[in-house]
Amino acid sequence: PQARILGHANVAMEPTQFTVAPIHAIRKLSDKLNLKLADVDLFEINEAFSVVAMAAIHDLKLDHAKVNVYGGAVALGHPLGATGARITITLAQALEVSNKSVGIAALCIGGGEASAIAIERVE
Questions:
Q1: What dihedral do alpha carbons 23, 24, 29, 34 form, nearest 10°?
Q2: Which of 48, 72, 89, 119 makes the best surface tag, with the fewest CB within 10 Å?
Q3: CA–CA separation, 68 vs 45, rounded Å?
Q4: What does the DSSP 8-state code read for residue 67?
């Protein structure tokens, strides 16, 4: 295996809040795992709209250099129906290539929902 799942979290908000829902999913996940965001090596935040990643970087005070290191969905594409798989595999590959350990992937879902998953590279 390339990585193992440390945990996941889902949130549901008002439908109009879908662009910021991943922020809440990431916070819920980090609280659940007692994981400080500063200790996360890389983030893959899906850009269904570019503002989603920008809002997360701003609100969570993330280091921009740790987010979407291969360009995110704006650069790579947004494969409807396969987004979760795409961002998780991209994150696992980025962790391996950069010799990092822990990453979080997050995405918004229509209707105000969001999901986040934390993974750890397996050596």
A1: 90
A2: 89
A3: 6
A4: B
Residue count (the chain): 123
Which CATH number fits the domain that encloses residue 110?
Answer: 3.40.47.10
- How far apart CA 6 and CA 120 sit, in angstroms, is 7
In terms of pTM, does the model score above 0.85?
Answer: yes
- Cα separation of 77 and 65, whole Å? 20
pLDDT digits (tens, 9 = 90+) for 1-54: 899 999 999 999 999 999 999 999 999 999 999 999 999 999 999 998 889 999
Q: How far apart are CA 23 and CA 9, in angstroms?
A: 11
- pLDDT per position as a tens digit, 54-98: 999 999 999 999 999 999 888 888 887 889 999 999 999 999 999
Tokens describing residue 98: 């950069």
Please give the residue range of the domain that contains residue 74.
3-121
Q: For the chain, how many structural domains are there in total?
A: 1
> Distance (Å, rounded) from C-alpha 115 to C-alpha 123?
26
